[in-house]
Specification:
Blueprint lengths: L1 E6 L8 E5 L4 E4 L8 H5 L14 E3 L5 H4 L2 H6 L5 E4 L1 H31 L11 H7 L3 E3 L6 E4 L2 E7 L7 E9 L2 E7 L22 E5 L10 H18 L2 E5 L5 H14 L8 E4 L1 H12 L6 H8 L10 E3 L3 H6 L7 E5 L9 H8 L6 E4 L8 H6 L4 E4 L2 E4 L3 E4 L9 H8 L8 E5 L3 H14 L3 E3 L6 E3 L12 H25 L6 H21 L2
Parallel strand pairs: 3-4, 4-5, 5-6, 10-11, 11-20, 12-15, 12-16, 13-14, 13-15, 16-19, 20-21
Antiparallel strand pairs: 1-2, 1-22, 2-3, 7-8, 8-9, 9-10, 17-18
Helix pairs in contact: 4-5, 4-8
Bound molecules: zinc ion.
């Protein structure tokens, strides 16, 4: 079986892995690339996915960097089944419609710009119609159930503790009468996540693809983050200014609402207006409230006691642009929760433009801020930023609070890795900025006997079930055999890579031949 890394390698977006053997081709996730223009170019060349020849997409969760290319791939011919949990399906319906709307707006803007310089109009990556057309391919599955994909491959969705419905995947594959197992972590949640249940653990696997979004960092504790959030709110109240919370519509928004409700209940915060200024976040909150079966025990108890975990008496929903704009005319302190989480789009940009220059205003950054985004500039302490082609001075206080992250931090990832028992486990570190993934790989290498690598974009890895070894081998021999197995996989990967290359230069051929001869000699030397 082969895995080709089509995305989320040495970067955080575009999660997608193509898995294939003679009978079956399927994807694990089908995410949108976001960030630089170079990165976004990857969204349009899907020929290597060969959508019409894919039988399945196994979808870990509804974040757009994991599901955002699905409408496009369906448009390009995918007719298989998209397997995911029920909550993921429901969240995808709002996320993908929203994403389609953004694609249409972007294309419209670019088309107008092109027209002025006499260039051709631009087609959106996909339209709302394309998004609507993809929903009929979704087939929700139960977590923990064994799902056969073909006579020799089956899979299982398990709780990843990240956002509502998020799962990691266990994939079992048979080859020559032996069984191998590969795990795709999807995105892993924190220990003691605020709302959703704690992630499951895995003890047995031969291969693991693990996310590393926060692979080089530790989060502050949730308790510290709560204290900081409360302090920011009180500071905003003291100056009579707004407290802006840029938040991802799914998960982060609900965690903030959950926390604000607790502050109110415990009398820690006066009853100032709270605006949820995001139609997407409003819909996501409704989906959360419909699915307590994914919640952790304390949140379920809360609901059993008749409380609505995400509801505040003074909460105001802004669905229309007019309602959103009206917030700017409201005097006095208030909390505004709006998307996008990285401040690079959405209604939060308007609120930032109106408030960033005001001393006493508070901006509370609670999520990951990718390189190149407005949110990242604020975190990095920019004194001036450009919003809607206007220069805006940053006089507001910027708070960076890490504890509300829906992602495990380095220690939590290592704790989860620590449950894997097989010393021959081969780990591929994915879904992190390049330096983060490399740093995390180094830490794993130091702490565990596992073989670790950080794959490149489009790299193909060969996966084989473990050899059945005679009983009574020493752990040292086991370890050496595992290294050999990893080497074999690497050799296969290189062979496949070479097969795909045309016109190899003569000098390069000589170089490769020399290297192979040297490797052969080294191997011979090992037997002495
Ligand atoms: Zn995610």
């Amino acid at each position: 079986m082969q895995v080709t890394c089509l995305g989320a390698t040495r970067t955080v977006t575009g999660s997608c892995f193509l898995i294939e053997n003679e009978r079956l081709r399927f994807l694990v996730d089908c995410g949108l690339f976001q960030g630089s223009r170079e990165m976004e170019k990857r969204n349009v060349s899907l020929s290597r996915y060969r959508p019409a020849r894919l039988q399945y997409i196994l979808l870990t969760h509804a974040h757009i960097d994991h599901c955002g290319l699905i409408p496009r791939i369906v448009k390009d011919g995918f007719r298989g089944k998209i397997l995911c949990t029920q909550a993921t399906f429901e969240l995808c319906q709002i996320m993908l419609r929203d994403s389609a709307h953004i694609q249409e707006m972007d294309a419209e803007w670019q088309t107008r710009k092109n027209a002025r310089s006499g260039q051709k109009p631009v087609e959106p990556l996909y339209t709302l119609e394309d998004a609507e057309a993809c929903f009929k391919y979704f087939a929700p599955v139960e977590r923990e159930a064994d799902i056969p994909l073909s006579p020799d491959i089956r899979c299982r969705f398990r709780n990843a503790g990240h956002i509502l419905g998020a799962s990691f995947l266990e994939i079992f594959f048979q080859e020559q009468g032996r069984e191998g197992k590969v795990v795709f972590s999807g995105d892993l949640g924190r220990q003691d996540a605020l709302i959703v249940g704690e992630k499951e653990i895995v003890e047995e696997a031969d291969y693991l693809f693990i996310e590393s979004t926060y692979g080089d960092r530790l989060h502050k504790s949730l308790a510290d983050s709560r204290t900081e959030l409360l302090a920011a709110i009180h500071e905003g109240i003291k100056y009579g200014e707004k407290i802006l919370i840029p938040a991802f519509a799914v998960a982060r928004t609900q965690e903030v609402l959950f926390t604000l409700r607790e502050f109110l209940e415990q009398g820690q915060m006066p009853s100032i207006p709270v605006f949820l200024d995001s139609p997407l976040a409003i819909s996501a909150t409704e989906i959360f409230a419909r699915h307590p079966e994914y919640f952790n025990a304390p949140t379920v108890r809360l609901m059993t006691a008749g409380k609505a975990p995400f509801d505040l008496p003074q909460l105001e929903y802004s669905r229309t642009p007019e309602e959103s704009m009206a917030i700017n005319h409201r005097e006095g302190p208030g909390i505004i929760i709006a998307a996008s989480g990285m401040c690079n789009a959405g209604r939060i940009k308007h609120h930032l433009k109106h408030n960033l220059w005001r001393p006493g205003a508070q901006v509370v950054i609670i999520g990951f801020q990718a390189e190149g985004t407005l949110g990242r500039s604020l975190v990095n302490g920019a004194k001036k930023v450009r919003i809607f082609r206007e220069e805006v001075a940053v006089r507001a206080k910027i708070h960076t609070i890490g504890g509300f992250s829906a992602h495990a931090d380095q220690q939590e990832l290592l704790n989860w890795l620590g449950h894997f028992k097989n010393p021959g486990l081969q780990v591929s570190v994915i879904h992190g900025e390049e330096s983060t993934s490399l740093a995390f790989a180094e830490v794993i290498q130091k702490m565990f006997p596992f073989r670790v690598q950080v794959p490149h974009w489009l790299e193909t890895l060969s996966l084989a079930p473990p050899e059945i070894r005679p009983a009574g081998l020493t752990p040292e021999t086991e370890e050496i055999l595992a290294l050999f197995a990893a080497l074999e996989g690497r050799v296969q990967g290189l062979k496949d890579y070479l097969k795909g290359i045309t016109g190899l230069k003569k000098a390069r051929v000589r170089e490769i031949k020399a290297l192979l001869k040297k490797t052969e000699k080294d191997l011979e030397g090992m037997m002495k």
